[in-house]
Amino acid sequence: xxxxGSMVALVTPMHDDGSVDNQAxxxxxxxxxxxxTDAIVAVGTTGESATLxxxxxxxxxxxxxxxxxxxxxxxxxxxxxxxxxxxxLTRHAADAGADACxxxxxxYNKPTQEGxxxxxxxxxxxxxxxxxxxxxxxxTALDMxxxxxxxxxxxxxxxGIKEAFGDxxxxxxxxxxxxDFMVVTGDDATACASMLAGGHGDISVTANVAPAEMADMxxxxxxxxxxxxxxxxxxxxxxxxALFHESNPIPVKWALARMGxxxxxxxxxxxxxxxxxxxxxxxxxxxxGALDADGNAIPATR
Length: 302
Prior knowledge:
single chain, TIM Barrel, globular, alpha/beta
């Protein structure tokens, strides 16, 4: 399996009582399909995987698979800091029909580089579904070295990495030291530059609110059309900043609620976006064309 382009790190919409809003989830999936999103990541960090129960985790993945109906691939977030738990979550996702799984480096317990190799190899051997590594030092306090990724790229069903180090040169290096391996960024602010440096796509927070624009930017950047890609990225660049004023997914869920696409609810310990940042998010939505002059969400045009 080789994926590329704009892959949305989908939020998990919730009711005020914290339960999953399945109707809003279905509407979001349809919007992404209509808008040209290349793949949907269900229950990743942006999907509040840390606070969903295991049954909820499995249910959201299963629902997204059914909602997509094979129109776009579904990547399930199944990482954990315990190897046995990561295997169990990955098996659940594979049984639900996910096309691939996304596994974050174990957080908090901070394994060695050799521990990372053994952890991801064990999951890959335990479940045959295609697997994508996920390196995000800002979340895990652990950086998986490019050489470790290269070792893991030789495991048959480890097919790629979401590299959220935030440096296009890291993306360029990973592409150079791996073969037939999907290297995508997880950092929207450097996504355009990362793809122009040889990366294959972006697992994106920004795509939640500007899916068509992110899809167009990714396609242009992957094709090497620097002028077009940078022009689109300039229009949505304010979102890359505003959606990280507080911890993700706090700002992006507030933005989607402001657009009328979901309710504002998150699960504790996350809280609704602080008022001091709300106007900045609104301004970014306007500049990206996600809101019209009257402040209403603009529908998909594809």
